Amino acid sequence: MISNSLQVLPFYNLNDSQFYTFLRLDKVDILKQNTQLSDYVANTNFVKSVDELNFSYVTDMDFNNKVHMLKDNIELSVIHFNIRSLNCNHRSLCQFLELLVLKFDIIILSEIWSVNIDFYHNILPGYSFHYDLPKDSHVGGVGVYISDSFTKYELAEYKIANSSLNRIENIWFEVSRYGKKYIIGGIYRHPNQNIQDFTSTMEDVLGKLSNLSIPSVIAGDINIDLTKCTINNDIANYVDNLTTNNFMPLTLMPTRITSRSASLIDHIYYLQGTKTKDCISVKSGNFLEDITDHLPTYMLLINNRKKMISPRPTVRIFSEKNMSLFKSQPSAN
Question: What is the domain range of residue 255?
Answer without folding.
Answer: 22-328
